[in-house]
């Protein structure tokens, strides 16, 4: 079962259930599952409701994040271009 879907643009901050979520450095990077391939990735930062740093992670499609006790799956990482920023799209899985 899936829940909410959220798209967060590069260089912005979103709030999910009181947590601040940052997205930056959207780019092509080596796929950890296949070092001969590149995939779109982004650095996602998580800060809990008390503003404590919960860590940054490089994420790509199908990676999962724990945000405010809920699981979120990365469903898309869009690369930016001259006309706009990249983005990360998350879907709540529980």
Provide structural commentary.
- With 94 residues, the chain is mainly beta.
- It has one domain (5-92).
- The protein is built from no helices and eight strands.
- The strands form two sheets. The protein has a four-stranded antiparallel β-sheet, with no helix packed on it. Strands 2-3-4-5 form a four-stranded antiparallel β-sheet, with no helix packed on it.
Please specify the SSE layout and strand pairing.
Elements: E1 5-9, E2 13-16, E3 19-31, E4 34-47, E5 53-59, E6 64-67, E7 70-78, E8 87-92
Antiparallel strand pairs: 1-8, 2-3, 3-4, 4-5, 6-7, 7-8
Tally of individual domains? 1
Poorly predicted parts: none
Major sheet details:
4 strands, antiparallel
Provide the succession of SSEs: EEEEEEEE
Q: Indicate the percent of residues in helices.
A: under 10%
Tally of contiguous helical segments: 0
Count the E strands.
Answer: 8
**Euclidean distance between termini CA atoms:** 7 Å
Q: Using only CA atoms, what is the Rg?
A: 13 Å
The coarse overall form would be globular
Strand content: over 45%
* Mean residue pLDDT: 93
Instruction: Record the strand order, biggest sheet.
Output: 1-8-7-6
Structural class: mainly beta
Oligomer: single chain
